[in-house]
Specification:
heterodimer, A: Dna Ligase, domain 1, five-stranded mixed β-sheet, 21 strands, B: mainly alpha, 2 domains, globular
Chain lengths: 499, 313
């Protein structure tokens, strides 16, 4: 690791683009400097951070960076897979410079997120019951019924308090001071919240003096909020203090450490499929004191693997009879079965209409303009402008199966054109967004790198809870827009300032 | 507590204890084979080591001859022998990973550290010195694990199940040594107290780290019936059958108390303890040492099954 360069060298011209507009990144919004580039005034939320970055000696910062990595290995990774051949890729790089959101910015996000998740829940309920939105012709039927994640088992199925998505991770990007876009909804089993919690713990340990300059909303109550949310949706037949468990696919799953971390923080049992047993449509776990009834299952395992009697018969991860107990209303699954119909990239483009349809409100959070290649007009536009667009597979995730037009070579573009023509339904296209950047420690010094944000929205029977903050992911490679950890992305602590 | 969690904790402790036991057997065998034949007799000590480790059948399925090379490979480093030291650490860590949150940081660090360290040893040591260092390292890892469990774990069912694993494994190991070597402890047919027997007896004591203890307890030179007495009936000897059962009864009682229910496991453990308490070593010799040990091993297995059925499944 090279030493961090001095503050006056921090804002390098090549990182920031040329002022005449020809270079890459002109017009790019920086979380700290706004649209003005290296010389611009620091935005108010970042003033104290900027001062602190100016004061801290490069070797001190460098030392703390190393310390952070050591701590992360110890707290974060040692309880999972430290030393495994695959462990290296799971040690997601952590950047010590926080990403800061002001109170008014968070206020917009919070209201927008709550609205969006309410609409998602209303949409899923509608699709599995009255199907009004399909009858109204707003969402095309085949988008639902031909979607492999549509679950006919859920047709007409009641779920407690009509809540399907109890934990949502909504990916947000920012393009300028006022505009946040939702990039993706994650309504199945979103992960990453352990990073949100651990990043804050590590920052508090390493930089107490930086925290003394700010008043930052805490995130440490997330496990508590999650537990309350889960208990609030227990089936009506459950005891007054319902038993919650976290269902994991097991130690070989890449997110296993997050599962064990959360179970530990929640104070609930971390169960595998073989620990559970269904009897007379009631779920039990095998304990040293005999069978114990389970009321709410926070499952971190996909629909496909839940119950071999109903879904994939070869699944050894699930529990035979679980679906039957679920359908009898004796156990709550969080999230519900079949929520995938609300979060793929094709239905995403209908989200603004979905919000309006169910809530009668204008969406507070915008969607990225999206061309659906399933529609002929859109397809011809996309084929025409492919060099300027980002093309994504409808069911793809993790940054795979994606074309970034301006960065792709001719052969790749030609290959994507062919794919688009042969299977247009499988693709959507979006403009290349100028994602906001945030100052980040890299080998050359401190430089702007692109970031996104995944806040976690908890939906209980009593209310919606959103811990202020979320997981900020950062693309550590210069100019890269891909923040996924599988593609060299890192994480940052996310601060929401007290008003 | 989840049955699987209890099961993982129990087996985690058993595997660590077994690794230590194997290291002790190998260490003792190395010492014996370094002595002139006149002192230890014509027996093949490497074959005895395999028998004491309880894996003679598997060994001879894979090897024709028991010698230093084949036995150290099989008992310490083999990938195919499920009970090799290597695989004991592998299984211990896998169990530990599944119950990561039930362990303290110190316990996890010890197990994970041992597992990482083991990788450095590759397929075996290049010299006897290195091998001796390896065996010492195994003993230290086991001590560290035991110590970190003792000093850092909450005293609840997680701790008690982990202790059950330690004492079940320990009782089994001590009984195996006696089972394989009992003939050396029987009344001599030829000369009494000859050098041959002395080194065999002291090696039995050494394999359960009881040589010094013996002298403190009896203040006598090494005599076979006293060796048997120490390993079987002496409460104060940490690896004796009596001590193991004292601890098994205690830990099972704590579990029963916490859960408010006694069961077959508690009754079985108490019955075995009573039998050990009411036995005298001269009577055991009269009625048959070998039969006594054989019965004990069966009883001990019965307790293992009872614990599994009552709590771990």
């Amino acid at each position: 690791m090279e030493p961090v360069s001095l503050p006056h060298r921090m804002w390098r011209e090549d990182c920031y683009g040329q002022r005449d507009g020809s270079g890459p990144g002109f017009d790019m919004f920086d979380e700290m400097r706004g649209n003005g580039g290296a010389g611009a005034a620091v935005r108010p939320a970042y003033t104290a951070l900027s001062d602190w970055l100016g004061e801290i000696k490069p070797d001190v910062l460098d030392f703390r960076r190393r310390e952070a990595e050591l701590l992360f290995r110890r707290i974060g990774i040692t309880f999972a897979v430290h030393g495994d051949p695959e462990a290296q890729e799971r040690l997601i790089p952590f950047d010590v410079i926080p990403r800061i959101l002001s109170a008014p910015e968070w206020d917009i996000l919070q209201r927008g997120l709550e609205q969006r998740v309410k609409a998602i829940n209303a949409y899923i309920k509608d699709v599995y019951h009255r199907r009004e939105i399909l009858k109204a012709g707003i969402v095309p039927e085949d988008l639902v019924f031909q979607n492999p994640v549509f679950r006919p088992e859920m047709n007409g199925q009641k779920v407690p308090h009509d809540i399907y998505v109890h934990v949502a991770g909504i990916d947000i990007v920012r393009v300028d001071a006022e505009t946040f876009y939702v990039l993706e909804d994650n309504a199945r089993t979103p992960s990453g919240v352990s990073y949100m919690l651990e990043n804050r713990e590590i920052m508090l340990r390493l930089f107490p003096e930086l925290f003394s300059r700010y008043r930052i909303a805490p995130v440490e109550n997330y496990p508590d909020e999650l537990l309350q949310t889960l208990k609030s949706v227990a089936p009506p037949t459950a005891a007054a203090d319902p038993t919650v468990v976290l269902l994991t696919p097991g130690v070989y799953n890449s997110a296993y450490y997050e599962h064990s971390f959360l179970a530990d923080k929640l104070g609930v049992e971390l169960v595998e499929g073989r620990d559970l047993v269904a009897k007379d449509d009631v779920m039990y776990m095998r304990t040293t004191e005999g069978l114990k009834r389970v009321d709410v299952i926070y499952r971190r395992i996909d629909d496909d693997f839940l119950d071999p009697l109903v879904f994939r018969p070869d699944s050894a991860l699930g529990v035979p009879g679980l679906m039957s107990a679920y359908q009898a209303g004796n156990v709550t699954l969080a999230n519900a079965v079949g929520t995938g119909i609300a979060d793929d990239k094709a239905v995403y483009s209908y989200m603004p209409q979905i919000v309006k349809f169910y809530l009668g409100e204008e969406p507070l959070l915008k969607n990225v303009p999206t061309w659906r290649c399933r529609e002929a007009e859109h397809l011809s536009y996309v084929l025409d402008k492919i060099e300027e667009l980002v093309v994504k597979e409808v069911h793809g995730s993790g940054g795979y199966g994606m074309l970034i037009g301006p960065k792709a070579d001719k052969a790749t573009i030609a290959a994507f054109r062919a794919k688009l023509k042969s299977d247009p339904k499988n693709f959507i296209a979006q403009p290349t967004l100028a994602l906001s950047t945030c100052p980040t420690c890299v080998d050359e010094g401190i430089a702007p790198r692109h970031v996104d944000l995944r806040p976690f929205v908890l939906c209980g029977s009593d209310r919606v809870r959103i811990v202020p903050g979320g997981l900020t992911r950062v693309a550590l490679k210069k100019g890269s827009l891909v923040v996924n950890s599988s593609q060299g992305g890192g994480t940052k602590d996310t601060w929401v300032l007290d008003s | 507590m989840l049955s699987r969690t209890a099961d993982n904790l129990y087996w985690l402790a058993r595997y660590v204890e077994r690794a230590e036991y194997l290291a002790r057997i190998l260490d003792t065998t190395l010492r014996l084979t370094a002595l002139p034949l006149a002192y230890v007799g014509e027996t093949n000590e490497w074959e005895t080591a395999v028998a004491t480790a309880g894996c003679a059948n598997a060994f001879f399925a894979a090897h024709d001859e028991a010698n230093e090379e084949t036995v150290t490979e099989f008992l310490a480093f083999s990938q195919t022998n499920p009970s090799s030291i290597r695989n004991c650490f592998e299984s211990a860590r896998l169990n530990a990973r599944s119950v990561r949150t039930a362990l303290t940081i110190e316990m996890w660090d010890t197990i994970n550290g041992a597992w990482l360290e083991l990788k450095k040893w590759g397929n075996g040591p290049s010299s006897r010195e290195e091998f001796a260092r390896f065996l010492r390292w195994v003993l230290e890892s086991s001590l560290r694990f035991d110590g970190s469990a003792y000093r850092t774990m909450l005293r609840n069912d997680a701790y008690w199940f982990s202790r059950l694993g330690v004492y079940m494994e320990r009782a089994d190991n001590t009984a195996r040594i006696l089972d394989v070597k009992y003939h050396l402890l029987l009344p001599p047919i030829e000369q009494v107290g000859g050098p041959l027997d002395y080194f065999q007896w002291s090696s039995i004591l050494r394999s359960v780290s009881a040589l010094t203890a013996y002298h403190w307890v009896y203040r006598e030179n090494v005599k076979p019936w006293l060796v048997a007495d120490l390993l079987m009936l002496k409460d104060e000897m940490p690896r004796s059958l009596a001590n193991c059962y004292e601890n098994l009864v205690q830990n099972l009682d704590r579990i029963a108390q916490a859960y408010g229910r006694q069961g077959p496991a508690q009754r079985q453990a108490r019955a075995v303890r009573a039998r050990l308490e009411n036995s005298r070593i001269d009577e055991i010799f009269q009625t048959g040492l070998h039969e006594f040990i054989g019965d004990f091993i069966e009883d001990n297995n019965r307790l293992g099954t009872a614990v599994a059925q009552q709590y771990l499944m």
